[in-house]
Amino acid sequence: MIGSKINAPRASMASRAAAPLRAAARPVRRLAVAPMAKASAATLAECQAECAALVKKASCAPILVRLAWHDSGNYDATTKTGGANGSIRFDPEMKHGGNAGLPLAVKLLEPIKKKFPDVGYADLFQMASATAIEVSGGPKIDMKYGRVDAADESAVPPEGRLPSAGAPFQEAQGPEPAKEAKDQSPQGHLRRVFGRMGLSDQDIVALSGAHTLGRAFKNRSGAAPLESTKFTKDGPGTKGGQSWTEEWLKFDNRYFTMLLEAEAGTCDPELLQLATDNALLTDPAFRPLVEKYAKDNAAFCADYAAAHKRLSELGSTFE
Ligand code: HEM
């Protein structure tokens, strides 16, 4: 199952995602037409405090990070489409196979959006993610706010731009991003996806370190071979799934030490490695960064924070 695509338009995945998605997306879209004022610094600070409280109460840091990354991670620097504009809240984008499970994240944020109507969706998604990283023990990310929200579904880019966890790998760029690529190497795929966004090899490795948080679920991406493990069976939050690290609500460099242990055969077999995670070990440009981050948590956190900031501003128009 490691080879399953996370963003392929799979019928089963689409139908699984459809029911919760409609429930979550309808009220979100109604609010989208409300007139927006620019949020003041005080409002942003209050809103951020609510995000921090939510992360602590619901143990939901990982899914909030994934929501923001999937909103921004479909940016195409050539056509200047996609990006961190809040368009993931619209049904057609939320239904992309790679977004399975994310209606839950939008739903978690709905009460905060209602309380702070002047904070836009794009800002709220990115704020919740950066706050989740910090609350989990990661770096403080130097965030910028004032993104203009995508107004309607016309901003939704074609499906296929988000990365797949395993073969078959798609082009992820151009007019038909879902088309199967000639180069089926996971590192080629990662460079097509992140290169399309204008991000570097270092950004790829640092950002992959976000998998120190969270889990893959059989009934969402289908990318996890195990339904549940000793690290996930009791939650907190949703039970089950397969995590990359033992303490999957803690943000540090464990993802990188785990990859090296997995290669040496000394890592717990219940921990997850996707084909795209393992590519970081085999590619000669990626590997030295894995080794560096495994040795030096501060270096990882500094590079992660810089890459996360870049990711969070891709394609955003600021007021
Ligand atoms: C490098 C290419 C990437 C691939 C192929 C990939 C793939 C995946 C897959 C298959 C899942 C499991 C989803 C599920 O079943 O619910 C996942 C989860 C996750 N991803 Fe990635 N991802 C990538 C990059 C990133 C980046 C750049 C970030 C953030 C900066 C990120 C953050 C996360 C988080 C936090 C989760 C856990 C979500 C949860 O526990 O609900 N990923 N990813």
Task: Describe the model.
Belongs to the peroxidase family. Ascorbate peroxidase subfamily. One of its GO terms (biological process) is response to reactive oxygen species. The protein has 319 residues and is an all-alpha fold. The protein has two domains: 11-159, Peroxidase, domain 1 (Orthogonal Bundle), CATH 1.10.520.10; 186-307, Peroxidase, domain 2 (Orthogonal Bundle), CATH 1.10.420.10. The chain is 46% helix and 1% strand. The protein contains twelve helices and two strands, in the order H-H-H-H-H-H-H-H-E-E-H-H-H-H. The chain has helices at 11-32, 41-58, 61-72, 91-94, 103-115, 121-135, 186-196, 201-208, 254-264, 275-282, 287-295, 297-313; strands spanning 215-216, 242-243. A two-stranded antiparallel sheet has the order 1-2. Helix 11 (287-295) crosses helix 12. The chain is globular, with a radius of gyration of 18 Å. It starts with 10 loop residues before the first helix and ends in a 6-residue tail after the last helix. The model is unreliable at 1-35 (pLDDT under 50). The structure holds protoporphyrin IX containing FE. Protoporphyrin IX containing FE binds next to helix 3, helix 8 and strand 1. Protoporphyrin IX containing FE (HEM) binds at residues 6, 62-63, 65-66, 69, 101, 163, 165, 190, 207-208, 210-211, 213-217, 220-221, 223, 274, 276.
